[in-house]
Specification:
3 helices, mainly alpha, 81 residues
């Protein structure tokens, strides 16, 4: 996804790899762990699937928020003190 100012998510990932991975991998890993837990322990999918969907939505929200913060910081650096 390219913004109006030409920045992409790839630019953000190259600039901040740890934060980007943390905001993406941790919620998705928790969602997969919850789904795996429900399969292993024979639990109902009525609770684990919505929980996983909420975590995926949360990961999307975090990435969008992080991208907006990254764009704002780049803009502030370009404008100067």
């Amino acid at each position: 996804m390219t913004s109006v100012d030409g920045l992409t998510h790839a630019d953000m990932i190259r600039a901040e790899p740890v934060e980007s991975a943390m905001y993406t991998i941790v919620p998705l890993g928790l969602a997969l762990a919850q789904l795996g837990n429900s399969v292993i322990n024979d639990l109902s999918f009525l609770l684990s699937v919505p929980f996983a969907l909420v975590l995926v939505g949360y990961a999307v929200f975090l990435n969008q928020f992080n991208f907006a913060r990254y764009r704002r910081e780049r803009l502030e650096r370009a404008i100067g003190p």
